[in-house]
Amino acid sequence: MKTAEAIEALSNEQRRFPPPPEFAAQANAQPGIYEEAERDVESFWAGWARKLEWIKPFTRVLEWNEPFAKWFADGQLNATANCLDRHVKAGLGNRVAYNWEGEPGDRRTITYQQLLEEVCRLANGLRALGVRKGDRVAIYMPMIPELPIAMLACARIGAPHSVIFGGFSPDSIVDRVNDSECVALITTDQGWRRGNKIPLKDNCDAAMASTPSIKHCIVVKRVGDPVEMREGRDLWWDDVVKGQSAQCEPEPMNAEDLLYLLYTSGTTAKPKGIKHTTGGYLTEVTMTHKLVFDLKNDDVYWCAADIGWVTGHSYIVYGPLCNGATSVIYEGTPDFPERDRLWSIVERYKVSILYTAPTAIRTFMRWGTEYPERHDLSSLRLLGSVGEPINPEAWMWYRQHIGGGRCPIVDTWWQTETGAIMISPLPGVTTTLPGSATRPLPGTFADVVNDQGESVPPGGGGYLVLTRPWPGMLRGIWGDDQRYRDTYWSRFPHKYLAGDGCRRDLDGNYWFMGRIDDVMNVSGHRISTTEVESALVEHPQVAEAAVVGRLDELTGQAICAFVCLRGGAAGSNVLADELRAHVGARLGKFTTPKYLTFTHELPKTRSGKIMRRLLRDIAEGRILGDTTTLADSAVVHELQERAKLEATKEE
Length: 651
Ligand code: PRX
Prior knowledge:
By secondary structure, the protein is of the alpha/beta class. The strands form eight sheets. It has a seven-stranded mixed sheet, sandwiched between helices.
């Protein structure tokens, strides 16, 4: 569907789903909470912060030295004491923290007591290796229990972690590790994916040739095939934890000490190391997890995201553990061994809350209803969506075929930078509409503004901004305060620019329209157009490349590359495949362009800027308007003809 049509369709969305009365009556969040937050937002957040366990209580709430925020700055706490010790002390040691299921079918149940002990052993092991408070530790792992254990062990001793999604390539590891000079890297021999073995340790070996700061590489044995272990640098996880005590004093951390870095794509080729600190972040992820997912003691909660992205950090690790939740973690893909894997997991563990992404939902739609129908999904009581705009058809399908028509759906808008959910229904309070994330949560202040930064009245669209600091907000970009100011705070004075286009309807509901910058969103993964372009031009035969996101029914957007070859050479299918493979190897397979077109020239303005918007129009088959500002308008015609051919091929 074209953007304009999509916007039109959304504006006409008439369906409304008020919370079911039984749900509303028992919900953690009741309607008065919005006014409560509005009345005095700082005491509202301080109230939630006080529900955490502080080693030294805070007396100050917010210090706002725009654009740098400090929350609860004179307080001290440790994230893992809040995630683990607190529950064990309260007698909940035997409660299950994680029901884990491996892709081949192996299973593990880990209680809070066991998780605490494993975290302490690794924390002691890290200390024994010389890892100190403030040192950065990189983690590159599949979805196995050792991944959250590694993150928590770092947090225990005050070493910020930097998790690198397991789909990234060695070069991407190098960039991230070197940017923040990590001292250790925690990984796995190999991982399972759709029955295949993923060479994680090999990727680390390739990366470690260019990461001088890494002193140790700790390796979990997951698959069991032999891997190279370099004497003096590489250690098996089992040896690191062997003989270590199951007790480890948590390091007292200032509320504003760094908890982690998480790299995300921006509009340049260099990823940004987003900084999240301890007290404010924990406060907000805990609050949103409790209210948006309406978490109760007997819930079985499953966020089916990967821990390598922020969704997993906030809503598989820190939020759920702080709330003492029982979660599910699944290692593999939803179609292994069959397309009903997720539903068999929901049935087995009696999952009551499921949080997943629109791309996954659209994939399930395509596969058909027979797979969810094979299983008893009656344990579900709430569904969530995250990562990209959800189209109303997918929303309705999710509601009907997964939620049995009875579960409220929370469409949650947020970002790596926001740390926690910002715009979302509260499931017992908000009337939902298919396709809308509804409105800002209590304590969150958003607006939609025009080019001049003026608030757009209801019914209009523009840029989504956040107008007040919030506890879980990023504290900046690692090593680059200027980029932090430029990216988020320079376009509109005193407003955080999220980078999303958004429309507000007459009732004040927010409808997200996708990114307004050069960032693509493919299956909920943020990928920078510039990053893919630089990977392409690294290839010896490529002279120039332009990359745009093209609307895609399944993945939201698909990567579409226009490539000019050196010496004006014509391309071939073989070379196109080679270039695709090159990008995949350079950045990670999930960044491989779906479409690749050769052209003798790229459309540019007279000043030499590539006209990406025009390329997007071409890629999406839109009729073009005025191209007179172009240096060479013949190229547009050529590209249009090719795009038509591509479209025919696809059908
Ligand atoms: O464009 C928005 C989209 O994902 C971007 C953030 O990506 P990332 O930092 O990787 O975090 C993803 C998980 C929180 C946003 O700028 N996005 C995320 N959730 C939604 C969304 N777009 C529309 N609706 C959502 N619910």
